[in-house]
Task: inverse folding
């Protein structure tokens, strides 16, 4: 039991977590820009 506690799956793949976070941040920022652009464009085209 002690050996299992000292070895965590997170420690065996430390490089995967920053890549996953980077990818989530990039995706969320991209979606935010697209949504904001869409709202602004719709406001200009369909607004008063």
Result:
């Amino acid at each position: 039991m002690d050996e299992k506690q000292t070895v965590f799956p997170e420690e065996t793949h430390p490089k995967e977590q920053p890549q996953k976070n980077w990818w989530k941040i990039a995706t969320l920022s991209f979606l935010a820009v697209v949504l904001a652009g869409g709202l602004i464009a719709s406001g200009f085209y369909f607004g008063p």
About this structure: The first helix runs from residue 2 to 6.
